[in-house]
Amino acid sequence: MAVRGRRTKVLPSELNKVCPERGDDPATHSRTMSDFEVVPNLHQSSSSVSKSRRKAHFPSGSNEKENLISWIPENIRKKECTYFVESSRTSDSGRVVCECGYLREQHLEDAAKPPIFLGKEWDASRHIQEMPTDAFGDIHFTGLGQKMGKYVRVSSDTPPRVIFHLMTQHWGLDPPNLLISVTGGAKNFIMKPRLKNIFRQGLVKVAQTTGAWIITGGSHAGVMKQVGEAVRDFLLSCGHKDSEIVTIGIATWGTVYNRESLVCPVGGFPAEYVLDEENQGSLSCLDSNHSHFILVDDGTHGRYGVEIPLRTRLEKFISEQTKVKGGVAIKIPIVCVVLEGGPGTLDTIYNAITNGTPCVIVEGSGRVADVIAQVASLPVPKITIALIQKKLSVYFHDTYELFTEGKLVEWTKKIQDIVRNRQLLTIFREGKYGQQDVDVAILQALLKASQNQDHFGRENWDHQLKLAVAWNRVDIARSEIFTDDYEWKPTDLHPVMAAALISNKPEFVKLFLEQGVRLKEFVTWDTLLYLYDNLAPSCLFHSKLQKVLLEEREHTGGSKMPRIQLHHVSQVLRELLGSSTQHLYPKPKHTERPRLSIPVPHIKLNVQGSSLRSLYKRSAGRVAFTVDPVRDLLIWAVVQNRRELAEIIWAQSQDSMAAALACSKILKELAKEEDDTDTTDAMLALAEQYEQKAIGVFTDCYRKDEERAQKLLTRVSEAWGKTTCLQLALEAKDMNFVSHGGVQAFLTKVWWGKMCVDNGLLRVIACMLFFPLLFTSLITFREKRLQPMGCLTRLRAFFTAPVVIFHMNILSYFTFLLLFAYVLMVDFQSLPSWREYLIYFWLFSLVCEEIRQLLYDPDGLGVVKMASLYIKDFWNKLDVCAILVFITGLTCRLIPSTLYPGRIILSLAFTIFCLRLMHIFTVSRTLGPKIIIVKRMLKDVFFFLFLLAVWVVSFGVAKQAILIHNEERVEWLFRGVVYHSYLTIFGQIPSYIDGVNFNIDQCSPNGTDPYKPKCPETNEDNKKPIFPEWLTVILLCLYLLFTNILLLNLLIAMFNYTFQQVQEHTDQIWKFQRHDLIEEYHGRPPAPPPFILLNHLQILVRRGLLRRPATHHKQLKEKLEKNEEAALLSWEMYLKENYLQHQQCQEKQNTEKKIQDIAQRVDVLAELLDLDRVKRTGLVEERLVSLEDQVHQNAQALRWIMLALQCNGFSSGEDMPPVGSSKALEMKELDLEEKLEETQPSYHVLARNLLYPGSRTLRFPVPDEKVPWEVDFPLYAPPTYSADHKDMAVQDPFSPSLESLLKINYNTMDGLIDRQSFHGLYAVQDGLPLNPMGRTGLRGRGRLHCFGPNHALHPVVTRWRRNLDGSIIRKSLKKMLEVLVAQYPLSDVWALPGGSLEPGEMLPLKLKWILRREFWPQFQNLLKQGTEIHKGYLDDPRNTDNAWVETVAVSVHFDSQNDVEMKRLNSFLQGCDPELCIRWQVLDKRIPLHTNHKELLHKVSTLLGAYY
């Protein structure tokens, strides 16, 4: 038994004093209200609340615990019995209990005192009071490992918003994308093992993939136990913490066994709970596999079902909330899943269906679920009391005797109503075709309910698509949404396309592109800004963008962080793409930009505070589309390292090769700055993939047309910052691409200029030395105009070729070095000779060339940027170093006192100039890679010297300290410590280190001789060394061991590794490095130094005096005409498609892919073979029925042919053979009758809804077969209800007495009240008229104002739906109508503009609200001219046994759009009551009106031959 006590006011700091058995590690988490504003009036606790989501079982800080301890008692209550009244019942132990079920000692102290004002009889409404709850916190299931959950005890009257606030803000749960309410048997039941596994796997899969909450009863029994075990098995198989499934148990506090362990006024953190099924008796234990518990308290003990009303209200409240998931705002859908179950489960299903909640019934689970599943496919009239009785006897054989006749009637009526709403009912059958998984059945049930829901326009389809996107179930979207039932416009998909991009759902992006979304229409400036506003905060690009914004804020001096603009994005992109590209998004000159104006109603998107829907509500004519939308989306995806998304977008690109190379460059640059190793590896791998894509596309292009492929390399791409594919590949260091045969062939062509590439090098050198040979056939040219021998342009073409310029510069450089060496060694005089002056002049030409290279800026990058690019090149650094050293030496040489130092410095300069020769060797395939090896080995040596210095210094200092005492000369200290130690490595061991070869004459005893080292420690007598020789020898041996053997071999190994690494890619490296040399000499002036000064003078005149800008050579960077560029890109795109198709074929032929496909097929085959024989037989029977149907149709056709022949006299009727069996004909007729009965119910339906509208009155259940008055129904005892309408002037008596009833004249005019029925005379019994359509389950007049018929008028005003040009819109070859509908105040539904007629009035009051008074007579004339489509009984929920609605429906159709009366009607509608909503709505079967009104619309559409 639970021990209950008063709530004690305890401070949070006293937690351990009050509940010493609780741990002091709280696990309650809370969040701010900004996430989900649903509880505006709650008491807010003092401490701040964290906004981020937290797991329920993770401990939080003390502040959060104190916050929860103060918040829950202020906002959540429990219920206590405050008056002990002895009950006739006793407890399980035989003790006296109160009427509430609790013992006397379990009541409050005041409850057992004599009553003062409460009375003697126990009344729950007066004797149970609310007070702050005393049970909440964390629940730990003892003996079950680390299983932790949250729990709270709440009053049964707690508002759902408070509980939802607790779950989302304090328990840290994200609002769900789907609410799965599992109901069924509360006791343990047996399921087939296969069905159990299918149910468990499917339930967990749908919860895990959609982010759903599962709500159950929370106890460790029945269906709740099945759900808990399903979650447990999933968590065990999954193994990672992020896979938590929210499972909420809503149980009755008074039925929870061991609940006293949960009571603690300041919260249990944690509360230890023991799951003890053996001793629980009639109570229930909580299930340990649920994550959260809401324990509903009504102040009683041992009464089950207390939680049902609160659970219903909570589920309804949650389903009304809007959840933003993946950028899509949806109302949280709810589905009810039913396993087994008894009477309470049937009520739950009935209430769910009545409230529009779809239900999934699991057939084979037993009892109620199987009863409904067995009759669900039958027509409603076939579901009789006898059939239900038979089914109950089968599935409730243990408790069948408890079903009374009244219960059978009630069950029949409820099951009929459930089956009547087939759109909300889904039966899950094991092995049903197309429905092998429960998760598919649940999602299909939701979509089926949504598809059949009444709606305006495309609201319904939008809702379905938003659900699929939120669930991330593209399979459901393909099979259930994108069907032939609705034609999607590409613009309708733009908002969900943005949501799919932001939430990284590539399959949905691919689906939307397949459905016709055009990126050129989708991507606008505002959409792109919206996407960058919602970058993943964890990505590196986001942080770089924030740095740019911060710098701008500091630069402008503003206090607020500026909003992201595209020029900010462009600034970061230029850093990543390199300086060779220009800004992709230039900074706008005006702050006002064109805005997006694509109207997309009915969808609301909201991600991280910015609303995409607002983007689609701008004024028309102000759309700003981007230059290349595919490029923009590709960059957005790549910077976030979204591989699948980027791959889909790249497949849409036109400039695909440049896009792939740019992506490779961006990813490699981001990888350099990324801290996370895994992300870095992923980026580099993706960069390599894009390089391979570029190679693949270029290979196909090169095979098709070499010349056009090479044009792609040098084409200036406007979309990618006016750069070229070749430049992008070089910036990204894509060696594989640059070393491609096509690229190398192009570079070779550039290297040879206008000459043919097959000219020998010896012939070129011969022509260089003796140019008249050019006018012979020794050298051939590619261009026809250069082929004539006497053409003077051959001379210009030859000497401007890069290969000739290169060799002429080599010859010039060697001449310079020879002359320089001669001057240094032979002709270096005190006064410079003419040879030396020639060297100075030569050097001046070299300096001018370096300046030209520094200032050459055809791209307009600026001097600073060009200087930085110039300095980055190693050979430029070497040139600058050599020139500076030469100038220094020249300065010293010109000063007589420093002539010799000047010569020394000039000698060093000569050495550096000689090193510059290595750059020339890069043109060689053999020597070029070796130079790269040398450069990399220099890096290895640099790091090796750090290791070597440790040993050299340590040995040198130790040796110097041991051998020599107080050496004060710094130069000899350096020699002894570093120089001698370094030489020792190479075998020059000091002779005095071991004392054997010591010679006193080779050293200075006192260290006074500057040319001799100081002598080591010696004996003063015989001048013999006295230092410990054994120690110095050991140190020397160890030193040589580590340096000569270990370190030097390490250096050799490093060199070997570097060599092997470069040697493996020798060809690639050489081809990549070769470009730099070709580019340098391609843009270099043709004359070699010192004659190059003439070219420099020409450039100076052209750019300095004539102001002509620098230009690129067309061979390396060419801007094409628009038509030519468009044709080239189209050709590239075509070959890119071929490449992608080839890749797909290769993937299919891949061995692993084949194995995977075979495994999937085997799994499917195993599933099919595993189906039982009954299911397979069912499929065969379905096919046989279909075959029989076809045979019957053929028989009918043959009968018609024979009758036609007989009529034409070809045969007599006696000779005609019988066609088709009579049995088949009878079956066909029965099927037709069943379909007719199902589509057209014989009896009123709405008038028999159990809950009467506008009241709490429940009708007596009336099954279909008991509706007619002629059918005997002895059990029929309906309640009586008549509402008092104070606003009505005329109404029949509220409490009918026989005297007042006798005054009413039925079947005639009773004063102003017309009591005549359109169906003739109706019966009157006991002074009350009887409904001519049969029983309704309620006596009296209900909410109607008169007994008998209540007359109404419903005008159906229609017009044709037209296009802007005035033509009528058609669907399925039929014209479409628009109907006038209205929504009245305090009503949630739309209706036809009509209603009940007041006595003596010609127009309904509701119609008068819509129209101005001056238009009433004209509208009456329209009604007289209209067509009467219905006159009689109207199936209305307000009808009773004694009062019903009869209406006259008149069709008023305006055939012409220029109809004067229609225009006048529209003008009078505009001035109606502002509280009314009126609209012309497209007429179809899904229009959201009352059911009886939709029947009238169907008749109108049939009358006019319109679409419905």
Would you give an account of this structure?
By secondary structure, the chain is of the alpha/beta class. Helices cover 46% and strands 10% of the residues. The protein is built from 50 helices and 32 strands. A 10-stranded mixed sheet has the order 10-5-6-11-9-8-7-14-15-16, with helices on both faces. A hairpin with a 5-residue loop joins β2 and β3 (96-98). The longest helix has 37 residues, at 927-963. The two termini are 64 Å apart.
List the main descriptive attributes of the protein structure presented here.
six-stranded mixed beta sheet; alpha/beta; 32 strands; disordered N terminus; 50 helices; 1508 residues
Largest sheet: 10 strands, mixed
Write down the Rg. 47 Å
Helix content: 40-55%
- Average pLDDT number: 80
Low-confidence stretches: 1-18, 20-60, 591-623, 1219-1241
The portion of residues forming beta strands comes to 5-15%
Q: What is the overall silhouette?
A: elongated
Number of helices: 50
C-alpha end-to-end distance:
64 Å
DSSP strand count: 32
Instruction: Give the oligomeric state of the chains in this entry, treating copies of one chain as homo and distinct chains as hetero.
Output: single chain
Strand order of the largest sheet: 10-5-6-11-9-8-7-14-15-16
Label the structural class. alpha/beta
Task: Give the gist of this structure.
The chain is an alpha/beta fold. The strands form 10 sheets. It has a 10-stranded mixed beta sheet, with helices on both faces.
